[in-house]
Amino acid sequence: MQQVIEGYTAAASELIDRFNAVSSSDLFKPVIDLLPLSSVRVVDIGAGPGRDAAWLANMGHSVLAVEPVKEFRDAGMSVHALSKIEWIDDRLPDLIETKRRGHFDLILLCAVWQHLDIDQRLVAMRSLAELTASGGIVIMSLRHGPGALERTVHSIVPQETVDVALREGFTLLRRVEAGSLQPANRRNGVHWTWLAFARRELVKVRGHPLRSVQGQTEKKSV
């Protein structure tokens, strides 16, 4: 992960504006109905400059933003100074500092998983299982397609991630394919798989049981 962090550090000034130009509500359309309406504890792992963390904090959630790149943390704390976000320096796959904060009802990993190799993903999924409260939800986006040479991207077979999650005690809530929102990424053939897992078999979202969406697979362009 150190090479990836150094790559993001070198490109931070360019990437901050690019990341912030993306609408969180548009980005999360494939899974937005899974986000809880009442205030919960949220951890955004790989929060970048805080776009999604601020979006969730402004909804009333208590948000921990986990970001190992100092330039992203500094930008996030500056731009979103009025949002109720706690920032920490921590990294996958072990998330040692994050685990000291207890359990979370919602865990997000947006555009992060592709930076981990297969062995690191096994450790990371175990970390997510330790962090997720009973009935909590993990939402992650898996990137497919080329990335910057200085930020290593590993290929992802979504079913492998699903299988690892099931072994760690998660239940699959949703699997959905989506196009990239960024024109340059679309031109390069980048697309995404969104996965959502629950820590136990039956949880409630928007006041209704989610049993009907377990294992749901669909395709979307967002």
Any idea how many domains? Answer: 1
Radius of gyration: 16 Å
Number of strands: 10
Q: Report the order of strands and helices.
A: HHEHEHEHEHEHEHEEEE
Strand content: 25-35%
Give the distance, in angstroms, between the N- and C-terminal Cα atoms.
29 Å
Examine the coordinates and then state which fold CATH places here, giving the name of the CATH topology: Rossmann fold
Shape: globular
Low-confidence stretches: 201-216
Report the sheet with the most strands, covering strand number, pairing sense and barrel closure: 8 strands, mixed
Using brief descriptors, characterize the structure shown.
single chain, 222 residues, alpha/beta, eight-stranded mixed sheet
Tell me about this structure.
There is one protein chain. The protein has a single domain (about 1-220), classed as Vaccinia Virus protein VP39 (Rossmann fold, 3-Layer(aba) Sandwich), CATH 3.40.50.150. It has helices spanning about 1-20, 25, 50-60, 70-80, 95-100, 120-130, 160-165, 185, and strands at about 40-45, 60-65, 85-90, 105-110, 130-145, 170-180, 190-200, 205, 210, 215-220. The chain is globular and about 40 Å long. About 35% of the residues lie in helices and about 25% in strands. A hairpin with a 2-residue loop joins β8 and β9. The strands form two sheets. The chain has an eight-stranded mixed sheet, with helices on both faces. α1 (about 1-20) packs parallel to α4 (about 70-80). It has about 220 residues and is α/β, with parallel strands linked by helices. It has eight helices and ten strands.
